[in-house]
Amino acid sequence: SSSHLQDGFNQSTSNGQKQPVHRGETPGSSQLGASNWQTLAKYVVVSKLDCQGLKSTIGFIIGSRADQDDIVIRKVVSGLHLVFVKDEYKSIEDGCHQDQKIMIYRFKHLMKKTKTAIFGGIPKDHSKDDMELYVRHRKKSGGGHIKACSDVTEDGEMAVTFMDHEVLERVCTTRHLLDSHELVVAPHPPDTSIVVEGISLPAEGATKRFRAKIDNYFSNEDHGGADIVEIEIKEKRVVISFETEEVVESVCMHSPHKFLRHVLTVKPYSQFHSYFHPEEEDSTESDGAASSVSSKKTKADSSASGGKDEDEKMSGADKEEEEEEE
Asked: Are strands 95-97 and 177-178 parallel, antiparallel or unpaired?
């Protein structure tokens, strides 16, 4: 309720008790005091903006008159945040906002779409084995059976995939204290993209015709695919987004993939890109070479060109490649 949220924002931390330590605490998070702020989370936000920039952006989205004190940001790991907003403001719909600067997911909805949780603020002396024991213990963490567990990074961060949604929901709405360190936990956004490595760009670059070939291959049911939302071609890899996680699983299960005589490495995006080190995502992009386009736009452009690309003369090598792909 609104009153419950207000209590959480105003609760004092000077009650004489030993207060939890917040590793990587962001400005404003102390307003939540000793309350169970995990149950107050409204949104999970993916963004490279800093805390103040993210707070200003959220304030602009919910209303130009929004009070900055009514918005609290808790960093989970680099690029991933929990956001708390008072109930009096309008709800924000899932999706990209502010010219793709941030991706917003409603906290309660996201918990029903994923089984993976991201933990931040883990004490340095806690190993992967320690954390596995903790997240399996229902009375301590709200957890249960787990499917997979990543290593704990030097910054005290890890990812855990549970066997079912109910366990994830309990974990994400439980206050976690380890040796007086309060952990920050958020559901992992759905994995609807794959990273493809091994595709060699033609000498002329990422042409419309080349994009169409990628689209045709990975939207083909014989390869486990379906309708493509977006194709992003980078210097050393291609990121392809689908509508659901199920398509990602299907494409990966159909490995190995062979495209234009090249054997490809195909992985879910989450296995390649880590919120823990988002800077790695930009370091391999070529200047001006990285580009993004929706599948629908690609097909529309191709249609508008009147099939000009398809009528161009092909070299013998191109013909062989197309025949092999078919």
From this structure: unpaired
Burial of 251 (0-12, 13-18, 19+ CB in 10 A): buried
Q: Does residue 190 have a cis bond before it (omega within 30 degrees)? A: no
- Tell me how long the chain is: 326
DSSP alpha helices (H): ranges in the chain? Answer: 2-10, 51-62, 107-111, 128-136, 138-141, 165-172, 208-218, 245-253, 269-272, 279-283, 295-304, 308-311, 316-325
Q: What is the DSSP string of 153-199?
A: PTTS-EEEEESSHHHHHHHHTS--EETTEEPEEEEPPP--EEEEE-P
| Residue whose C-alpha is closest to residue 103's, from 43, 38, 14, 41 | 43
d(CA 39, CA 22) in angstroms, rounded, equals: 17
Please tell me which residue, 310 or 228, carries the higher pLDDT value: 228
Distance from the first to the final alpha carbon of the chain: 58
Q: What confidence tens digit (pLDDT) does each residue in 108-133 have?
A: 989 988 888 999 999 999 999 999 99
CB 72 within 8 A of CB 29: yes
- From the list 128, 158, 162, the residue with the least C-alpha distance to 144 is 162
The amino acid sitting at 118 is I
Q: Give per-residue pLDDT as tens, 234-274.
A: 777 898 988 888 899 899 999 999 998 889 999 887 665 55
Mention every residue, 6+ apart, whose C-beta is less than 8 A from residue 233. 201, 206, 211, 214, 289, 290, 291
How many separate helices (H) and strands (E) can be counted in the chain?
13, 17
Q: Tell me the pLDDT tens digit for each residue of 182-229.
A: 999 999 887 788 889 998 888 887 789 989 999 999 999 999 999 998
| pLDDT band with cut points at 50, 70 and 90 for residue 290 | very low
- Give the Cα separation of 320 and 58 in Å (integer): 52
DSSP H or E stretch at residue 230: strand 228-233
